[in-house]
Every structure is written in structure tokens, then in C-alpha cells.
């Protein structure tokens, strides 16, 4: 009996040893492939490829990323991550050619008819008790589809019979704001309890002429498009269209000080979260308007895997109308959609139906179609859009929601850009608030900002946020643009003083 037990234990040990050896060999081959590719890219002497491969470790798909380690164990993913732009350059070229057409024609803004409220109060802030980040939402569980409403929703999603597998719907998995980072949650960049405190900081440094303009327009139907300019609300879509076609003028306005580069005086949101945690700040202690928040979510009305589970992932059959209503309950005023018509159709929310429901529930809509895994092609175009969003929504107290398919890659990228322009992140060695980096500032400062942005978005949304090297590389380029514009503004001010 003892011999049999010893033999069984020995066999188990041998099997474990073999698995460990196989894993070690697999990791060695993975790392060797990654090294060979890196050396090949260096030999190409192509600056764009070199920068892309250097940004690869920042991607959540990277084989040694925090996400990969959490998913596969401490050795990371068994395969090497290589940016698609390097793996399949011809496919990438065709994808970006299609996206370029979208940026030229599909980026648009649809407005509801009534005016934007002068000051939106965000999610009610507790006056006594902080909310714990670690709280679980026990009500969010997969449930079998059994209700008549859920079955009807599935029929609209095209399955012919009631499924026997688990399906996530807008009823079983309601879109709502929760502290725990759940797949079905809407994530807020700024914890609602910190909105009053951060608003106090932001409005203490906003140009006085902008605040006066907001006060004067509080009862009028107007849109703010620069530090000094307001236009009729109905003219905003045309203004955005013109700005996207003439981004050079947008950049020149920034240098002259007429247009937003970044909100003045930085504030490290990451440091506040780490050092102070969630604190309450009673609304009645601050007699001032609040900023609007930035939310991230997966695609509303999303319908995928309706024929059954795929690789252990449940079917999803959401109701567009129900999801949008929950956005409205959160106080969201404008939706930024990063999907093109084809992808919306694929996800079960055809654009015409999507647009109809968005308009019927009173949202403004901004479309920024971006190919999955990629980023906007034009830095200044995105910057022009973000300037309008911040001046006309965020600083007027209206919250923004951005979504793509899952709300982590493309949506996470737009949220990072918003965080940067709101000045909620800064290098540790650049004391918050100076007019911008000095000419001697090192390139490592730009990279440090990017790392901080990615760390913050993963803290607030998901470890998967910023999925690809292409997206991380775009962030680096965008940080450089903002720093360059700030330095140009400083030089211009000095010369014209």
C-alpha cells in the first residue's frame, strides 16, 4: 500500500516536473522570438517601427503585462506579443486607409434640441460616509434566460429558439456605476466623491474671462468653443466639421492663448487616490459649479455570442433603450462613440437605430470611429474634438461617456487623452502647474506621463485598458504634441509681452 502511494506520488512529481520543463521551454522560445523581432526592427532603422516596438511593453496584450500575468500566471502569456503593424503591414495599411475615410467623413456631432444645462450636478455625493473601492455587487450574476422580456430581446438578436445557455442581458447585468471594476459596469475616471474637491481646484485656476462667459450664457442656447468664443448651439456641428478640416488654425489659436491646450495647473489624480483614498466633500461646503465626469462603458445594446459560449465567455444580449436610460440616470449628457457603422451593425446596434435611440433620450452624440486595436490617425483632429468637449461639457458640469466595443481599448485611449487635457496627471519631477516643460526637458518626461496615464486608466477601468502598442504609441505622440504646444505658448507669451 505504501509502495503504491509512493509510486503514485512519484508519477505526479514527474508529471509536474515535465509540465514545468515544457513551460520553461515555451517561455524560452517566446522570449527568443521577441528578442529576434526586436533586433530585426532595430536593423531596419525605421524610426516609426522602432518607436512602436519600444511601446509594446506598455500594451495590455504584451506577454509580460500585468494583465497577461494575471491571466496566465507569473510567466505571462505563452506566446510573444508582436504589434499588428509589424506582423501584417499590408492588412494594417488597408485598415488605416478605411479609418482615414471615416476620420474625414464620419466624425460628426449630433445635438439634442434643448440647451445644455448651465451646471450639472453629478452623482449625488455622500455627506457622511466614503464608499469603499473593494465593495462587491452581489446582484451582478449570470442568470439563465427565462423571462419573456429577455426571450423577446434574443429574438431580435436573431436566434430562432430560446437558448439553454447563460446569457447576460440589460436586465440580468444592468449597466450602472459600481466601485468594483466589473465587466458590465460603467467606470468613472474621477470617483464621484472627489468631484467637489477636484472641481474646487479646477475652477480656482480657470481663466476668469471663461467663467464670466459661462455665467453670461447660463440661460442661453449657446456652445463654448474656445476660451473666448461662444456660438449658437445649432452651429456647433458645423464648427467641429470646419475645425477638423483646418486643424492648423486650431493649433495656432492654442499658441496665441485663445484655445485650450490643457486645463491650467495640474493635479495628480493617481496620487490623490493612492495617498488619500476616497474622501467625501459635502456639496454644501463649496458654493461653486462642479466639473462633469468622464465615464467608460462597453457598447450599449451589445449582442454577441448568441449561438452559445465561446472560449468560456457568455452570450451577451443587451437592450439599447434600457442601457441608454441607465446612462441618463447617471447624468450623462454626451456620448462619444468610437465604432463605425459596420461594427455597430455587427454588435446588434445598427447606426440608424442607435442614433434614433440616442436622440430620443436626449443625448448629444459625437462619433469618432476608430479601428479596433488602433488609434486616431490625426493628433490635432482629436485634440480639436477634445477641446470642444472639455470647454462645452466638462467645464460646464456635463458628464461625457465614451464607449467602443468593450470600453477598454479605444475608449480607454480617448479617456487617457481627456485626463491629459484636464491636467490630472503630471511627471513627479515637474512641479504641477508650470506653463509646460522647459526646452531641456528629457524625452523620458513624456514617457513618464504616458506610463502614469496608462496606470491611472487601468486603475479606474481595467487591466486590459490600452491594449496595443499602436495605442500606447499614439498616447506618447499626443503627450509630445501637448508639451510642444505648451512650450510654443510660453515662447509666444514671452515675445509679445
UniProtKB/TrEMBL annotation:
<feature type="region of interest" description="Disordered">
    <location>
        <begin position="1"/>
        <end position="25"/>
    </location>
</feature>
<dbReference type="GO" id="GO:0140096">
    <property type="term" value="F:catalytic activity, acting on a protein"/>
</dbReference>
<dbReference type="InterPro" id="IPR000387">
    <property type="entry name" value="Tyr_Pase_dom"/>
</dbReference>
<dbReference type="Pfam" id="PF22784">
    <property type="entry name" value="PTP-SAK"/>
</dbReference>
<dbReference type="InterPro" id="IPR050561">
    <property type="entry name" value="PTP"/>
</dbReference>
<dbReference type="GO" id="GO:0016791">
    <property type="term" value="F:phosphatase activity"/>
</dbReference>
<dbReference type="InterPro" id="IPR057023">
    <property type="entry name" value="PTP-SAK"/>
</dbReference>
<feature type="compositionally biased region" description="Low complexity">
    <location>
        <begin position="1"/>
        <end position="11"/>
    </location>
</feature>
<feature type="domain" description="Tyrosine specific protein phosphatases">
    <location>
        <begin position="379"/>
        <end position="461"/>
    </location>
</feature>
<keyword id="KW-0378">Hydrolase</keyword>
<protein>
    <submittedName>
        <fullName>Phosphatases ii</fullName>
    </submittedName>
</protein>
<dbReference type="InterPro" id="IPR003595">
    <property type="entry name" value="Tyr_Pase_cat"/>
</dbReference>
<dbReference type="InterPro" id="IPR029021">
    <property type="entry name" value="Prot-tyrosine_phosphatase-like"/>
</dbReference>
Amino acid at each position: 500500500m505504501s509502495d503504491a502511494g509512493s509510486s503514485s506520488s512519484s508519477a505526479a512529481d514527474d508529471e509536474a516536473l515535465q509540465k514545468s520543463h515544457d513551460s520553461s521551454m515555451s517561455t524560452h522560445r517566446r522570449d527568443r522570438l521577441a528578442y529576434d523581432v526586436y533586433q530585426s526592427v532595430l536593423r531596419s532603422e525605421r524610426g516609426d517601427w522602432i518607436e512602436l516596438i519600444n511601446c509594446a511593453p506598455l500594451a495590455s496584450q504584451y506577454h509580460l503585462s500585468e494583465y497577461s500575468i494575471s491571466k496566465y500566471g507569473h510567466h505571462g502569456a505563452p506566446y510573444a506579443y508582436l504589434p499588428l503593424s509589424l506582423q501584417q503591414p499590408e492588412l494594417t495599411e488597408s485598415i488605416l486607409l478605411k479609418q482615414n475615410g471615416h476620420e474625414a467623413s464620419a466624425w460628426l456631432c449630433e445635438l439634442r434640441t434643448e440647451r445644455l444645462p448651465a451646471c450639472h450636478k453629478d452623482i449625488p455625493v455622500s455627506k457622511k460616509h466614503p464608499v469603499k473601492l473593494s465593495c462587491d455587487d452581489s446582484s451582478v450574476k449570470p442568470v439563465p434566460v427565462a423571462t419573456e422580456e429577455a426571450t423577446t430581446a434574443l429574438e431580435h438578436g436573431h436566434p430562432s429558439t430560446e437558448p439553454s445557455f447563460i446569457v447576460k442581458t440589460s436586465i440580468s447585468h444592468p449597466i450602472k456605476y459600481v466601485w468594483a471594476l466589473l465587466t458590465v459596469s460603467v467606470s468613472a475616471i474621477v470617483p464621484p466623491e472627489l468631484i467637489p474637491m477636484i472641481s474646487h481646484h479646477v475652477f480656482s485656476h480657470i481663466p476668469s474671462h471663461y467663467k464670466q462667459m459661462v455665467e453670461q450664457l447660463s440661460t442661453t442656447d449657446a456652445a463654448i468653443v474656445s476660451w473666448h468664443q461662444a456660438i449658437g448651439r445649432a452651429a456647433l456641428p458645423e464648427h467641429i466639421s470646419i475645425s477638423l478640416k483646418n486643424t492648423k488654425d486650431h493649433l495656432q489659436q492654442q499658441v496665441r492663448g485663445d484655445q485650450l491646450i490643457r486645463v491650467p495647473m495640474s493635479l495628480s489624480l493617481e496620487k490623490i487616490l493612492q495617498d488619500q483614498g476616497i474622501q467625501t466633500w459635502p456639496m454644501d461646503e463649496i458654493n461653486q459649479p462642479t466639473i462633469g465626469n468622464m465615464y467608460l462603458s462597453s457598447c450599449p445594446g451589445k449582442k454577441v455570442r448568441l449561438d452559445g459560449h465561446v472560449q468560456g465567455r457568455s452570450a451577451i444580449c443587451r437592450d439599447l433603450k434600457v442601457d441608454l436610460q441607465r446612462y441618463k440616470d447617471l447624468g450623462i449628457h454626451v456620448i462619444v462613440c468610437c465604432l463605425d457603422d459596420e461594427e455597430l451593425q455587427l454588435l446588434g446596434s445598427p447606426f440608424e437605430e442607435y442614433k434614433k435611440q440616442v436622440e430620443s433620450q436626449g443625448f448629444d452624440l459625437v462619433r469618432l470611429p476608430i479601428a479596433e486595436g488602433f488609434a486616431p490617425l490625426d493628433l490635432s483632429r482629436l485634440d480639436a474634438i477634445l477641446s470642444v468637449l472639455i470647454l462645452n461639457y466638462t467645464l460646464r458640469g456635463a458628464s461625457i461617456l465614451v464607449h467602443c466595443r468593450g470600453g477598454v481599448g479605444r475608449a480607454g485611449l480617448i479617456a487617457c487623452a481627456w485626463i491629459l487635457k484636464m491636467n490630472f496627471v503630471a511627471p513627479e519631477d515637474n512641479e504641477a502647474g508650470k506653463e509646460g516643460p522647459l526646452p531641456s526637458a528629457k524625452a523620458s518626461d513624456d514617457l513618464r506621463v504616458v506610463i502614469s496615464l496608462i496606470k491611472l486608466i487601468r486603475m479606474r477601468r481595467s487591466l486590459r485598458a490600452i491594449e496595443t502598442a499602436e495605442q500606447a504609441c499614439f498616447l506618447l505622440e499626443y503627450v509630445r504634441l501637448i508639451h510642444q504646444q505648451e512650450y510654443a505658448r510660453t515662447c509666444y507669451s514671452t515675445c509679445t509681452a
